[in-house]
Amino acid sequence: MAERLIQALSAATARLARFFGVAGPSGLGRRLLLVALALALVGWQAGWMPAVAQRITGTPGSPNATTTIPGTQLPAPAPPFGGVIRDGALQSKPWWASRIVPPQSAPNVLLIITDDAGFGVPSTFGGVIPTPAMDRIAREGLRYNRMFSTALCSPTRAALITGRNHHSAGFGVIAEQSTGFPGYNSIIERDKATIGRLLKDNGYSTAWFGKDHNVPAFQASQSGPFDQWPTGMGFDYFYGFVGGDANQWQPNLFRNTTQIYPFEGKDPGSWNLVTAMADDAIDYMARMHQINPSKPLFIKYAPGATHAPHHPTKEWVEKIHAMHLFDDGYEKLRERIFANQKKLGVISKDAKLDPWPADVITPWDQLSPEAQKLFIRQVEVFAAYAAYSDDEIGRVIQQFEDLGRLDNTLIVYINGDNGTSAEGGPLGTPNEVAFFNGLNKLPVEVQMKFYDVWGTDLTYNHMSAGWSWAFDTPFSWFKQNASRLGGVNQNMVVSWPARIKDKGGLREQFVHVIDVVPTILEAAGLQAPEVVDGIPQKPIEGTSFVYTFDSKNAKVPSRHERQYFEMMGQWALYDRGWLLSTKVNRAPWDAFGPANPDPLNNQVLELYNLNEDFSQTTDLAARNPQKVKEMKQAFIAEANKYQVFPLDASVAARIVAPRPNITAGRTEFVYTHPMVGLPQGASPLLLNTSYSVTADIDVPAGGAEGMLLTSGGRFGGYGFYLKNSKPVWVWNMVDLERLKWEGTEPLTPGKHKVEFDFVYDGKGAGTLAFNDFSGVGRPGTGTLKVDGKAVATKTMAKTLPMILQWDESFDIGSDTLTGVNDADYQPPFRFTGTLNKLTIKLDRPKLSPEEIRNLEAAMRTKAASE
């Protein structure tokens, strides 16, 4: 062994001497440098260091030759032609560039991230919901109890695929709230290539299944551009949805960039995306394996579970109901999970629980029997959704084993992209779209009307925040709360049988989602590129945690020492166990009031030592004022470094912020051809404005019916259609009420002009720029006309202020997915007449100079009083 090492060092030193132009050893320093470089080269060859040295198999230039690449530049530059070209082919020698492959033994990678699930959800970490797939990976690999997210969906996912902080990647908030600042514009710039792109260019097959939520809302239409879609960011294949959530029974589903409808024609409740995406992933894996079994796979697997709507199958609801896990309420559930966590050893022995927040969430024994019944139904459906999703994840994991590839597969299974969501409010809701329009406390008696269909295609459901608090045990607060561990402290399991031998081990090092990309790169023997497509790359900001795979490093300090957190004006800084955090000043459901005008300074600061206080229960700020001051300055430094400024504490107001979509600046839209699938972020918005919609149509003999124009669906939107030849306009007020304008007589055969005019009585969304909600959701009067004559007039006492059902589209001539009025029609409800032209004209309110001055004065007065 020693002789071979000496020979290898001698050969390597000689090669390096020739490379550096050194004729011979003319100095001790030079010789030592060459020996050090030679050791590095031998280390590459022996597998001691990441394999960045080129490895060639086969005869160079032959069709079967393969090569690894340095990886500093992607795509790899084309090599010079190595054959011979003469006047004739018979006198020439052909030559092929070697096919690019990853380093030898580079693993397959399965990256799993679930949605809106806190620390106490999975059984793997003490939860009562069975998650056997996660349990399996934990048994075969490692458990991590300090995996951190950003507190919200899009931001975590942008950080996960780029290895950069969420503001660095343009995702300071979700795509639907983007604003015109670099840290918040929802654009992953080309100097931050994703892990999909890096692996693809190094010879991997790359695929993405499930939720995306990193396509800007203003680039989600079929007019593109598609560079921010998965297929534009390095993933060969995409099967999923691009928005924040999806109806799992009838999703806004894409294969690559083409919308598909695999559920059409299926009986209600017989098709579900949770199973369908597992089926598609399994099929994809089988095809890739059959075509080229030597090519490693990278799969990002991102179920919609457990984000609302909670849509499990009936069978899973019945399984969970039979277990009676929640009959004694959310406080008892919390205590049971906490006890389980200590028994499993996944939290520290001296961890404590904060008192139950009775001022925020009504204690269980103070609820009415009817409320308890409703809440139990809500949580059983949520739990069924989580268990169902984990079961389907298990099928995907099993496919790796069935293909004989599990041993060399790195599986990273992250529970939740943030803490459990409380966006259903304290009472839960049958329709989450109502929450985003300010209706977040629907009375129990109203919700009980949906009890029997909870979780089916007739609801867009969410559960009471009391359950969410319990599912974040041992921490407090929820998704959106970036300053509390309940919002950001996830958990994770990792397995790689060929590499990780400490089966069932626990790792307590601080790990953040930005650490996943460098970990995958190190595991695959790859380095981050310096240039991609000619664009110099920003440094990866995460830290690999491959070092934690070895049992000898089980207790070493984390190499990720400092991390900032910020979400909608709440912020924190972690520094080697210390956590400076802002006191929570807004529950997630309180999204419709004026925002904190100075979120950097207008805060109560708290200080925790997480090395001694696992669950963030003991505030040390009063005892350590200097530490608080130092850490605040450190946060400011991090915020400047990573594009966090300007801090913005607004929530709902950002939903309707101006964006550079294809409708920006336009006041008239003309359609002459049927069209479906235009997303909300790229279609004319009829909220908080006056408008008119005019359809020039031909009615055939015998009459006509069908959809002229619709946007949204069963859970919020509008429709303009003919029913039995009578014109109808319907506003669906988040499935709680439907306001209807209808003609009194059927249209006669021939040409007609049907029109809906709406006059809005409000100042419009412009008031939101002044931290004022008075301009949105105001009343208005609608008039339905036929051939210029008014046939129905009605005043709306209130209008939708913020959003329609975002996973449904803007359609002309028919209606895709769900309809806005089940009582009148069922999709696709194609128009049976002839639609010659449909015109939409907008007359958006404009603030007068005096109104602007008044709003500015009111904003200054409020800021001075806080």
Automatic annotation (TrEMBL):
Highest rank taxon of the organism: Bacteria
Entries under Pfam families matching the protein: Sulfatase (PF00884)
Ranges for domain Sulfatase N-terminal: 107-525
UniProtKB keywords: Calcium, Hydrolase, Metal-binding
Top-tier EC class: hydrolase
GO molecular function per UniProt: hydrolase activity
InterPro entries named in the record: Alkaline_phosphatase_core_sf, Sulfatase, Sulfatase_CS, Sulfatase_N
CDD domains in the record: PAS_like
Record EC number: 3.1.6.-
Family membership noted in the UniProt record: Belongs to the sulfatase family.
Protein name (database record): Arylsulfatase
Phylogenetic classification of the source organism: Bacteria, Bacillati, Cyanobacteriota, Cyanophyceae, Synechococcales
